[in-house]
Write a structure and sequence with these properties.
The chain is built from 4 helices and 13 strands. With 187 residues, the protein is of the alpha+beta class. The chain has a single domain (3-175), classed as M1 Pyruvate Kinase, Domain 3.
Length: 187
């Protein structure tokens, strides 16, 4: 186990879903993840893409965006600069705390609670819909690193490897893939 794995356990602080293609998703007491499909009852559930712009491009693409996770630390950062965001408001299914989602490599498996396993496929690319929450929000979830590269902070996407229930309070433990690690790219 690496230092990242040993020290990276986090916690689920909220779970959310929406059966309609809405940006914000209401919080639930519990959500059920289905292997190979995503969040039961969520508009983005399925083996093939469900995001409307991607369906228009090619509806047969595999759905690498079955589950959206955002770190609550982003909400803390946004609140400090005038963007009060609540869990589920940016469309995530699982809001986490205590794990640096953006630092995980592609292929990391997240064990959530007793049984669920989600494999991280890439970064969420923030979209202009965030502006409907509050003007300036889209730019607030983008940054530049020391080399001038674009940093997307709107969470990560994943696919469900092992299904089951997820609820607030569940522990999240990462298992990193074999080396060499690939940095997360937008999916």
């Amino acid at each position: 186990m690496t230092d990242l794995e040993a020290n990276a356990c986090g916690e689920v602080i909220a779970v959310s879903r929406s059966g309609a293609h809405t940006l914000s998703k209401p919080n639930e007491r519990v959500i059920r993840l289905l292997a190979g499909l995503g969040v039961e009852g969520d508009a983005h559930m399925g083996e093939t893409v469900k995001h409307r712009s991607r369906v228009r491009q090619d509806p047969t693409q595999p759905n690498l965006r079955q589950v959206h996770l955002i770190h609550a630390e982003l909400f803390d950062e946004l609140a400090a600069v005038g963007f009060p965001i609540a869990p589920g408001q940016m469309g995530e299914n699982i809001t986490t705390r205590g794990i640096d989602l953006l630092a995980l490599p592609t292929g990391t498996r997240l064990r959530i609670g007793a049984e669920v396993v989600v494999e991280v496929t890439g970064l969420r690319n923030p979209c202009a819909q965030l502006e409907s929450i509050q003007a300036g929000l889209m730019m607030a979830v983008l940054d530049r690193d020391e080399d001038g590269n674009l940093v997307r902070k709107a969470g990560v996407m994943g696919v469900v490897v092992t299904g089951g229930e997820v609820r607030s309070g569940d522990v999240i433990a990462p298992s990193l893939p074999a080396h060499p690690h690939q940095h997360l790219e937008p999916v």
